[in-house]
Amino acid sequence: MNSMTVARSLRGSIGILAMAWLLDESTTAKAAALGLDAPGRGAYAVGRLGVLGDCPPDAVVSAAYFWEPHLMRTMVADGRAVKTPAEGAAIYTRICQEWGAERLAGLDGVERLGEILTTVVDSASPLGAPMFVGWRDMPRPAEPGPAHTFQLAQVMRELRFSRHCIAIQAAGLGPLEAILSGPAGDWNAKMFGWPEPYPDTSSLAEVREEAEALTDRLHAADLDVLTDDERADLRELAKAARAHHG
Are 191 and 72 in contact (CB under 8 A)? Predict the structure, then answer.
């Protein structure tokens, strides 16, 4: 199976599988119970984005890319007032592992999926991918299994996310334009903190699709390290993991 076919498939499997936990209310509750009790979305900012380290806030704004900049700076300040980036990243990594241990328990092939994801993650180029690098280098569970595999899925999601940011910029789209011309439109724009009124982006649908296609091409290169059989297994196991998660 070729890399492009698998890269397109992963958008709806690994991408969705490893997205839900980040903004789930249970993640915020668990973070608070572990001492990361920050107002608003401060826990998210110092948790998911804490892997960037103690960098300037605008470095976080840059890596987060789609969030409204002023809101993200506020989120970073709120989160760092409670925990350092290293502490926040460690807490979110633990929550990620616990989520995977619960949600992927009993999945046939979970260790095989983790093995394949490890090959991709450990071989992928770090260029232009700060969020991927940060999550790649977080400690992983010592033993293979659901927690290990889910953490690797999160790292893979950050890898595709980094490729997507490059593709959006290459297409000449700004963050808000990209959001509004995407499938969730206004709803996503509100979630990411962009104030209304929103511009009309109906003319950008074709450009947005071109950016998605470029994302697939960039991510496909990450999968070239795999054999045909490994890519086929990755595609099917990732789909099974998403279905198993629900």
Answer: no
